Amino acid sequence: MDILINFLFFFSALGAFNCLLISFYLVILNKPRNTSNYYLGALFLVLGLRVTKSVLIYFNIIVLEQIILLGLSACIVIGPLLYLYIKSTINSNFQRNESIYHLVPLLLIVTVAGLTYPYLSNQNLWVNYLVPTIYCVWFIYLCFSYYYLVPVFKKISQKNIKLKDIEKWLISIFIGITFVWLAYAFSSFTSYISGAVTFTFVLYILILIVVFIKNKNSIYFEKINPANRKLLDNKLIQRLDEELERCIENNELYRNPNLKLVDVSKCLDVLPYELSNYLNEIKKKNFSTLINEKRIDCAKAKILSNDKYTLESIGYDCGFNSKSTFFRSFKKYTGVTPYQFLKREY
After folding, report:
1. Which tens digit of pLDDT belongs to each residue from 68-105?
2. Structural domain harbouring 268
3. Which of 16, 86, 114, 120 lies at a CB distance of 3.0 to 4.6 Å from 69, suitable for a disulfide?
4. Is the peptide bond before 105 cis (omega within 30 degrees of 0)?
5. Overall number of domains in the chain
6. Which are the contacts of 245, defined by CB distance < 8 A and separation ≥ 6?
7. Is the pTM above the cut of 0.70?
8. pLDDT level of residue 292 (50, 70, 90 thresholds)
9. What is the distance, to the nearest Å, from the Cα of residue 334 to the centroid of all Cα atoms in its chain?
10. CA-to-CA distance for 38 and 32, rounded, in angstroms?
11. What CATH number is given to the structural domain containing 300?
12. Given pLDDT bands bounded at 50, 70 and 90, which one contains residue 218?
């Protein structure tokens, strides 16, 4: 029995140690440095801290309030960091300040809860309510991450489309973190240390994936190289030529004032950067220009066929979020204001 316990300790502790080393490499040593690398490094850091907390407590090495709070704080941001890593990797319009809204509130909530209701003196509250809530937050962000990976998962079932290396990596790390969540969320039915053991196993599987699929210059730990974005598959170009206009017009997507590139990419079952690259390289226009052209065409048609609504209401109906934006865009694309266009046609 002692041999098994010693093995579990060694295996779990080694996983935590290696995880912290990987985090240090990604954040400090790895080049080129980019937002995605920082999120991935932070993800491995909090995973390492969470596993370290499990090892210290399970083997009764250190049982301190601060260690427990640190582990729980790390646990609540695992899901958000996975989501931010995946989104920043595949979404060319990702904004770095978005992380503030996902990470800071959660860390503040756990810190305040830990200081107000110390774990050791309020174990029933934490075990029955707060810890399940933390795992629920983790699960919600797994769902958010899956949302961005839907086009990639759909590619798996399409025999004529080959997954890119970065797509294989994103799927691998998503599945791996999902298994770790399952192990921790249901540890009450197995063992407290099962989460740490599962993570260590997943970590080495991920390392093997990197080693066997790509060499040391793997793009797995990098943001998608802009140069690689310019390489569009001919079949993808042909499909977008056929489906882009139909997708936008048949579904009247342009009428949504909050329409984003990722929304159209989901309609087309492609990754956002693929659609962005197609528009820039093939259509020679960006996403905003494409959608505004559709909105202007919609407005021109309504102005000519409708005398019941004001020009302002037509602008709103076609997807513009303000009167000034509508009038400014209309003049930019047609050379005249909506009112001048109406007078000219009649």
Report:
1. 888 888 899 999 999 999 998 887 677 888 899 999 99
2. 228-345
3. 114
4. no
5. 2
6. none
7. no
8. very high
9. 38
10. 11
11. 1.10.10.60
12. very low
